[in-house]
Design goal:
about 280 residues; 434 Repressor (Amino-terminal Domain); 2 domains; 12 helices; about 50% helix
């Protein structure tokens, strides 16, 4: 199978479920079409679940348990997947992020994950646990995935990264003064890297700011582009060129309106000195 995607259960609950589903199917010598006939789902749906692109719904896992004779084993694992803190669409995006030749980020309120220090990331997840938004297990899942994402971009050659942060990102006191000071120091280190440009969109930019929600734009080595954005409950990966191209245009406009990297570094340094 030339297009077979290798699965790594360590990537997260979806990947672990997909690996198990494929293993059960192949142990019986079934093709995806065979399993499709036994569950009432299409072969493409089976493929999507196996590769982590689709969520294993309760109906799907119940039918799969009947097909494999596995009692409620897949139903229980599928429920754990659906309770994961990782949003739909994000695991698929992470795979493309790890291959990207260029990554463009715009963020509001907090420093984006790829640039977070461990202490800053832990403070964010700790706050979510305290609010009851996620469990400690889900927090651990998020932090483990973030560590893998950060490791994936520390490759040779590294991706070119363009980062525009709303001013709120450097002023919100996440984790307290010490943690924020460390995080701002990390931003200064990132700005000094040859493959990275860091800019700030100051508050006074006002209506000239192109985006009012976070967005990540990715360019792959073959020149194809995609965009990823999140709402409170879901993530969306967009590949349609008609929809992605205007986002790149808006991003370039934002870069032109934002502070230069020199000005941005000066502001980050000033804020950092003020909290030490």
């Amino acid at each position: 199978m030339t297009n077979r995607k290798e699965l790594d259960p360590a990537e997260g609950p979806r990947a672990a479920f997909g690996e198990r589903l494929r293993r059960l199917r192949e142990e019986r010598g079934w093709t995806q079409d065979d399993l499709a006939g036994r569950t009432g789902y299409s072969a493409s749906h089976i493929s999507g679940v196996e590769t982590g692109a689709r969520n294993p719904t309760s109906r799907f896992t119940a039918r799969s348990d009947r097909a494999f004779g596995t009692g409620e084993a897949l139903a229980r694992q599928g429920a754990a997947v659906r309770e994961s803190a990782i949003l739909d669409g994000f695991p698929e995006f992470v795979r493309y992020e790890a291959m990207a030749s260029e990554i463009r980020l715009f963020e509001l309120g907090i420093v984006p994950g790829l640039l977070q220090t461990p202490e800053y990331a832990a403070a964010i997840t700790r706050g979510a646990v305290r609010r009851g938004a996620i469990t400690q297990e889900q927090a651990d899942e998020r932090l483990a995935l973030l560590a893998r994402r950060q490791a994936s971009i520390a490759r040779t050659p590294p991706p070119q990264m363009y980062v525009v942060l709303d001013e709120s990102c450097i002023r919100q006191l996440v984790g307290g003064p010490r943690v924020l000071a460390q995080q701002l120091g990390r931003l200064l280190e990132v700005a000094d890297m040859p493959n990275t440009v860091v800019q700030l969109a100051p508050f006074e930019l006002g209506e000239r700011r192109s985006f009012y929600t976070p967005v990540t734009l990715v360019t792959l080595p073959d020149g194809s582009c995609m965009a990823y954005a999140e709402s409170a409950h879901s993530g969306r990966l967009e590949r349609d060129t008609r929809l992605v191209r205007p986002l790149f245009t808006a991003y370039h406009q934002l870069e032109a309106e934002a502070l230069s990297q020199t000005e941005s570094v000066a502001m980050i340094s000033q804020v950092r000195k003020g909290i030490l």
